[in-house]
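Justification of computing resources. Each target in the renewal requires a structure prediction run like the one illustrated here; the chain below, 192 residues long, is used simply to show the kind of job we budget for.
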Amino acid sequence: MKYRKIVLIHSLSFIIGFSFVFIILGISSSALGKLLSNYQVYIMRVGGFILIILGLYYLDVVKIPLLNRERVFHLQEKPVGLLGSFIIGITFSLGWTPCVGPALSSILIIASTTESIWEGIFLLGLYSLGLAIPFLISALIFDQLLGLLKKYSAVVRYSMKFLGVLFVIIGILFFSSYWNLVIAKISQIFAL
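Resulting structure tokens:
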């Protein structure tokens, strides 16, 4: 029980580290989008095209070697304590391109078209939360984790395909300028 608490605390510090980087990226993307708001139609079309390509990458229709590379930062000495876990979270966010790159890129594209910087922070906060949940669950059940990974490995493969289809659909909506119409309809539904 003692070790589970330590693993959980270090996992939280790690999550705060990568969330910090992703939220800073969201702020930057939103700010850049606001700066280039006169060109939003073109940005959405280019972003839609990129989302379609990323979706096709997830569906294994196109190969993008750049997304298959992983940057690994080797720390001479592993930082100790919670600060060390935070720093490793930061380096994780900067170097784990194959898994987070396509999804992160698409969310940054969406964040660049938002009305305010807070919306970009919100989007990247949700993205960080989505990445955080598996790490938290892993920290809580780390002794049973290996068996679960073997048992449900097919789920990961199908979830990547689902994500690919979702990217293509969102990319088409962006490219065709129907994204704002869809967002308006969703807002009306939730406003009721």
